[in-house]
């Protein structure tokens, strides 16, 4: 019997989004600091606000598909809207300590 996960949706969503790896950097989008917000409304629409490391990122379609796949794994998510923003701009300061160490940034 599996344990019921009573954590807030945002925490559970961030956990599964760690499975979405930026193939160029080999680090997940959560630890890269690309996720700015996650909301789930009462109709099952999950709105993910995120940025990219660079505007015009060639991996946008790949990342969108991987994000949708992870988030639609939740029963309560009926649809996913990905809102890509460039303000505030992404910088290495948004990365987790672990991601910086993995990339050799001190």
TrEMBL record:
Q: What Pfam families does this protein map onto? A: FeS_assembly_P (PF01883)
- Where does the MIP18 family-like domain lie? 10-83
Cited Gene3D superfamilies: Fe-S cluster assembly (FSCA)
**Any idea what this protein is called?**
Metal-sulfur cluster biosynthetic enzyme
* Protein source organism: Lentilactobacillus farraginis DSM 18382 = JCM 14108
């Amino acid at each position: 019997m599996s344990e019921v996960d009573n954590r807030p949706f945002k925490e559970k969503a961030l956990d599964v989004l760690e499975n979405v790896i930026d193939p160029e950097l080999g680090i997940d989008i959560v630890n890269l600091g690309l996720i700015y917000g996650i909301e789930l409304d009462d109709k099952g629409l999950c709105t993910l606000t995120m940025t990219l490391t660079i505007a015009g990122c060639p991996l946008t379609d790949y990342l969108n598909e991987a994000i949708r796949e992870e988030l639609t794994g939740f029963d309560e998510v009926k649809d996913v809207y990905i809102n890509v923003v460039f303000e505030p701009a992404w910088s290495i300061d948004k990365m987790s300590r672990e991601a910086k160490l993995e990339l050799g940034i001190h």
